[in-house]
Amino acid sequence: MATRRGPGPDPRRGGRSDDDPDDVVVPLRRDTGGLGDARRYRPRGRTVRESADPADASRRADQARRSQERRERAQRESTDSGSAAGRGAGTNRTDGSGRGKAPKSAGRAGTAGRGDHRDGGSARPAGRTGSVRAGAGGAGRGRSDRDDDARTRDNANPRSNAHPRSNANRRRNAKTRGDADARSAAKARAGRDARGGDGTRGSARSRGTGKARDAARAGKAGRAGRAGAGGRAGTGGRRGGVRAGSWGAESTGGKGRPTRSRPAKRRPIRRRVARLGSPGRRLRFGTVVVLVLFTVIGGRLVQLQLTDAPALAERALHQRLQTVPLPAARGSIVDRNGQVFAHSVEARYVFADPTMIKDAAKTADRLSGVLGVPRSTLEKDMRKQKLPNGSPNRFVYLARGVDIGIGDQVEAMDIPGIGVRADERRDVPGHDLAANIIGVTGWDLSGLTGLESKYNGLLRGVDGKRQYEASRTGEEIPDGFHREVAPKPGGSVRLTLDRDIQFEAQRALYRKLHPLHSDMGAAVVLDVKTGEVLAQASYPTYDAANFADSTKAQRTDYASQAVVEPGSVEKAITLGAALQCRVITPSSTVHVGPTITVADTTYADTTPLDDVDITLPGIFAYSSNVGTIKIANKLGAQRLYEYQRRFGLGNETGEGVPGEAGGIVRPAKDWQGSDHGSIPIGLGIAVTPIQLAAAYGAIANDGEYVQPHLIADTVSPDGTKSTPGVAKHRVLSPSIAAAERKAMVAVTTAPGATGLSGAVDGYQIAAKTGTGQRVVNGSYQKGNIESFIGMAPADHPRYVVAVVAHTSGTGEGANMGPVFQDLMRFTLGHEKVPPTDAKTPSFTLYHK
To answer: Which of 174, 455, 494, 588 could make a disulfide contact with 65, Cβ separation 3.0–4.6 Å?
Structure first.
């Protein structure tokens, strides 16, 4: 029958174990003779896929030799045990049935073969001894155990089978010994058969067989774990008992014939054959995989090198490019003589590359004290940001316009990602000089207020830029991409202001208004022929070089942005309109009393006159409300309103200052009740100081109104010079204007007149004083608006000076007379205007 190999190395397989990949099917043949081992099979053939390794072949040959030696030893021992059994048959007794009984010593040997512990012997040596005494089977089994141990040692030591020549010698010796042993075994079998025919020995064998059967049963009991004689057999006793029983049964059968126990059939164990992979299949698969990979890589390379190459190159260049702005020089603002009011000077700017800054907080802490910028602002600016196109922002301004020394200090810190470049800063040499008109710029040199804001586009110019390829450390790559667009400097603005007159106007205001704690004041110097504004001062003012500490009130240009009631200075407009409309003549008189009532309001004069005929010079000198209202009633509201508009009241003059106020002049149809008495004397309307100066300029310019203006000309970056146009129109005839100027001289010369404090020695001054009020947030402000406006020389006027201020109110513009006097004297002297040659005229102020 065929069986599968069991677990463990098998000598019939050349030392292979179950883990070997080959599957061996061995046909088994049972040995019919009495000397074969039940577990030893002689293969008739095998189907083995032999290894080509010489070491394996040598190992299989050694294993075959050792197996042959074991079989021969077993046969010799069987022969010896059979002879001993025949000799002991003569001493055995025979029972009545003719069966032989083994002596008691045989039973003890069987007991010892079971490994009885009652004798004090060990299990395994007893088993071997008992097997020898019981018969050849016991001896054969004990030797088989030793052969198994030897075989295990041989398998564990592969070096003993390593040399091919020694293995061949062993095979030849084994074959010679095997032939001799086979011949001896054949002779032994022939002798046993001859003795088996003898009746006496047959009886002895029968008796021996019975005792051996008892020993076999005892051995089976030992294998089952039961103690045959009160003790438990060990491993050796169990094996000895089995072998003793087996060979005892083999000695004689029930009929005196040798028998052999049949081994249990072993079911073949089928093992799944492990199929080895095909090298060709693996090679084909690997080739396909490699081809696919190379195809994908090649396609990607084609895409990168051909289709996507331009876009990727442009993107890479853009990532390497670093752009540095080149600020354009901002244009200058100068006075009429080219003296600088504001210009740009060399400075430094500090910038950061956020991609190179590792610790923004620490860097901001180091720079905050040097730059004077809050730490939180610097830290926010230095954080990594992205541009709208997704690329990182590599340029951020940290400070602009810093001094050169500060820039050198920052550069000496050598902070990665922080750089210093050339820049410019807006410099205002005069600090507060004309600051309310000039205005200021921001840190980026953009205009914020004043003329800097209005003409920002002209002054700013066009910034340039410099682009270059930079390394990761920010350094420019030599011979890399480089492009530079040169900046275009801004244009310049030339004003009509005179730096010296402007300074004197501001100083005169400050000296007068600061002790009075006045909250606003303005002074204007106007060239009556051209309309050029030579000075336009405001109080309070501020330092344009440090505008951060200024307030809105300090930055206001009160000459063009503050609206006030003109008060009695309006009377020059009312009386001029009456003269032009021939309601009165220069020699006319008006009968007046101490008061006059219009609607529900009574108006009185500051210089009361009771029942007199007042002349035109008297009305100007004493600022008679009663006489002016009576003339206005003859003129009419509509014509008065029309002349107010002709004189420029109620409209922006357009002189050039941004944010100029237009004032409030109501149409005649909107007049109600007392408006007919208030408006002719300068109450109930709101105008700006520059409007009043321009109106008096028309009287001084022989009745022609010339638009006041601050801008003399502008020069564009390309050198083109442009002069703004000046609007002109006639309001009064020259004779009427001259007659009115002559009457106004009485204000500074007549005894008791209101404007004596404004007289200038050597010059005839035609002027008018006024007192009004100022409306703030819909209500009248406490105190008075005091005005003093005049022109000189009166016979041929050159300049008009207007002074308006809010004071606590001490009289009819008396507080502003000294300011007018100082400013007019300085202007006439600065412009080298000769004194008046004509004698001061004498005036008749009234008739009783």
So the answer is: 174
Token readout for 77 is: 């021992």
pLDDT for res 260: 55
pLDDT for position 171: 59
Q: Could you tell me the pTM of the whole model?
A: 0.62
Kindly report, residue by residue over 820-843, the tens digit of the pLDDT.
999 999 999 999 999 887 777 888
The 8-class DSSP code of residue 760 comes to B
Pairing of strands 492-495, 333-334: parallel
The tens digit of pLDDT for each residue in 552-596 reads: 999 999 999 999 999 999 999 999 999 999 999 999 999 999 899
Nearest to 487 by CA among 405, 395, 407, 424: 424
CA torsion sign for 661, 665, 670, 673 is positive
- Integer angstrom CA distances of residue 310 from 296, 305, 390, 568: 21, 9, 19, 80
Side-chain half-sphere of 335: how many Cα atoms within 13 Å?
A: 21
Burial class of residue 283 (count of CB atoms within 10 Å of its CB; 0-12, 13-18, 19+): exposed
How far is 471 from 450, CA to CA, in rounded Å?
44
User: Distance (Å, rounded) from C-alpha 562 to C-alpha 690?
Assistant: 10
Name the H helices within 584-674: 616-622, 625-635, 637-646
Structure tokens at 381: 């600016």
With CA atoms as reference, report the closest residue to 121 among 247, 243, 246, 236: 236
Q: Is 348 helix (H, G, I), strand (E, B) or coil?
A: strand
Residue 629, pLDDT score: 95
3-state secondary structure 360-402: HHHHHHHHHHHHCCCHHHHHHHCCCCECCCCCECCCEEEEEEE
Q: 6 is written with which tokens?
A: 């069991």
Distance between CA atoms of residues 749 and 774, nearest Å: 29
pLDDT tens column, 25-42:
444 444 444 444 444 444
- Average pLDDT of the chain, as a whole number: 77
